Amino acid sequence: MQSVVEFDNVGLRYGTGAETLTDLSFTLYPGSFYFLTGASGAGKTSLLKLLYLAHRPSRGAIRMFGHDAITLPRDRLPGFRRRIGVVFQDFRLVQHLSTFDNIALPLRIAGILEKDLQSPVTEMLDWIGLTERADARPATLSGGEQQRVAIARAVIGRPEMLVADEPTGNVDPEMARRLLQLFEALNRLGTTVIVATHDIHLLQEIEGAQMMRLDKGRLSDPTGSLRHPPRPLVLKN
Amino acid sequence: MLLDFALPAHDRKLIPEGRLSGQTPWVIAIMLFLTLLVAATGLSLFDAVQKGGEDLAQQATLQIIEPDPVARAAQKVEVSRILRNVAGIAEVNPVPDGDVRNLLKPWLGNDVIDTDIPVPALIDIRFKKAPDDATLNALKARAQKVAPKIRLDSHSSWMAPFFQLMSSLIYLAIAIFMLLLIATSAVVILAVRSTLNTHRATIEIMHMMGGTDVQAARLFQRRVALDALLGGAVGFAAAAGVILTLGGRIAAVEPGLLAGASLPVYGWVALAIIPLAVTGLAMLMARWTVVSALKKML
User: Fold this and answer.
1) Which of B201, B204, B210 sits opposite A109 (nearest CB)?
2) Looking at CA atoms only, how far is residue B43 from chain A in angstroms?
3) A158 and B CB contact within 8 Å
4) Do B287 and B144 reside in the same domain of the chain?
5) Domain limits for position B140
6) Given CB atoms, is B291 within the 8 Å cutoff of chain A?
7) Of B13, B203, B208, which to mutate for an interface test with A (greatest number of A Cβ within 10 Å)?
8) Are B298 and A53 an interchain contact pair (Cβ–Cβ within 8 Å)?
9) DSSP-derived 3-state class of residue B15
10) CB neighbourhood size of A172 (10 A)
11) What pTM was computed for the model?
């Protein structure tokens, strides 16, 4: 099976400090769903940053979508980033843009015409239950609403890979489940989903969820999924 | 560049309107006002030097320094007749003796002029084209056959220091013009850097979503272009007011050296182009600043 991401002996060091991530070697397969867990400071966010190409590793090799991501020229990064959806832990919504415009941002960056993005953005607003708040600025939204907007923005472009950092941390259990359904639906369409979370209940929501565990920058593979193509996912009812 | 300026309305919202603006258009207006005044001064001087230099180079004055008034008057008539028959001469104007005395009276007084001092006879000569030294020497030799004591002065030679000064002032104007353009560019760079820092988070988000450096640069280019156009319009209006007012004052001065100092039509065209050129320069500086800064990001 063709991989989406391959890490080979990857290490990440900020400045001259100790390595934040050490000897990471794993493969992520298309259409699979991974949970990334670990204690605070274990390196989850750093690993996600490598996955969404915000950083280059200090050592090792990364292949992404069949290309060497380490030597990828800077001017080719935008094309790769458009294939990746990101939900940031701190949402990173554009404060002066409305809910609608925040969600439409990836489509506009990709050059989608205005007439072609109205429908998907409106649908997405409906999905996350924020149709009434389409014109609201992020500052006027609750934490949970902002998180839903951040998720909608990450998935609107139907990315090939979705990277989410604690995506359900600020929403109630019902909304968390709806958002997971959204991820799962996207996953069924072929998107590889990587969700970093502390939420043990979330891990139990999806049957057959593959789990990656980070401990002090090193990766363990409790479900054995990283070296073997995962089983199809089933969302528990 | 023009296409970059015409951003869709939704893209314009990525960087809030008015944030970059603030004081920037007014600073650009002041810089452009000064730039245009310097440019107008330089262009007027250049035009005056061109016109005046060409005019003066075609003129010469012949002095007959004969002490005997009767002989001097006869020589004046004869030399004038000879000069009128020279092929390269357009006009020969013997200056009336009364006019020469009037010129000297303020310095020497009425009594002295009329009695004691032999005043030279003057003949103004206008050539069809600026004569070279050989032509002047040949003309002098020809005149000396009937009037041995003469002196022939080309106007361009005694006006040379004045035109050298004018040329120096033009170079100074060019230097100040360039310095002001550099200062205006620096203002734009500082404004863009400041705005880039303010909106760094937005730009980073755009990057993470696959936005290119050029896409980000376009947002800043548009804002800078609007600021520069607004500043340029204000600066041009103010400078035009000053130039027209000064032009009126200069025109009211008695004809002389200042009479040639007016802004020619091509000067006004150049002044109108400068704000547009500065807008283009500002957009280039904005693009360069943003792209340079973003290259430091991954």
Assistant:
1) B210
2) 45
3) no
4) no
5) 66-148
6) no
7) B208
8) yes
9) coil
10) 10
11) 0.70
Smallest Cβ distance to B11: which of A75, A96, A108?
A108
Per-residue tokens: A38: 């670990």
Cα separation of B178 and B199, whole Å?
Answer: 31
CB of A74 within 8 Å of a chain B CB? The answer is yes
> Are B48 and B107 within one domain?
no
Specify the pLDDT at position B12: 61
For A58, phi then psi, to 5°, come to -75, -30
**Rounded CA separation B228/B241 (Å):** 19
For B1-30, letters b (16+ CB in 10 Å) and e give: eeebbebeeeeebbbbeeebbeebbebbbb
Q: Look at A160 and B250; give whichever has higher pLDDT.
A: A160
Relative to beta strand A206-207, strand A210-215 is unpaired
What is the b/e burial string over A143-156, where b = at least 16 CB atoms within 10 angstroms of the residue's CB? eebbbbbbbbbbbb
For residue range A181-237, what is the model confidence (pLDDT) as tens digits? 888 888 888 899 999 987 777 777 777 678 888 998 998 876 666 655 555 555 554
* Per-window interface: A 100-119 vs B, CB < 8 A: 101, 104-106, 108-110, 114
Q: Considering only the beta carbons, identify the residue of B10, B208, B211 that sits closest to A101.
A: B10
Q: B74 with B178, same domain?
A: no
Nearest CA to B92 among B67, B131, B122, B57? B122
Domain match, B72 and B44 both = no
With bands split at pLDDT 50, 70 and 90, how would you rate the model's confidence at A176? confident
Question: Nearest-CA neighbor of A161 among A86, A56, A102, A225?
Answer: A86
Nearest to B16 among A56, A96, A114 (CB): A96
Q: Are B66 and B73 in contact (CB under 8 A)?
A: no
On whether both B192 and B72 belong to a single domain, the answer is no
8 Å CB contact between B213 and B292: no
Residue B96: both structure tokens together: 């009336």
**Helix residue spans in chain B (DSSP H):** 2-5, 9-12, 24-57, 69-84, 97-108, 110-115, 133-144, 155-198, 200-208, 213-252, 265-294
Q: Which of B81, B116, B148 is the last residue of a domain?
A: B148
Which of B110, B125, B148 lies at the terminal end of a domain, its last residue? B148
Q: Is residue B83 part of a domain?
A: yes
Query: How many whole angstroms separate alpha carbon A70 and alpha carbon A80?
Result: 12
Instruction: Report the domain count for chain B.
Output: 2
- Interface check A62 vs B, CB under 8 A: no
B143 and B185 together in one domain = no
Cβ of B205 within 8 Å of Cβ of A101? The answer is no
Domain identity same for B20 and B82: no
Distance from CA of B227 to the nearest CA of A (A): 21
Q: Do B298 and A79 touch (CB under 8 A)?
A: no
Identify whether residues B203 and B281 lie together within a single domain: yes
The first and second tokens of residue B232, run together, are 């340029």
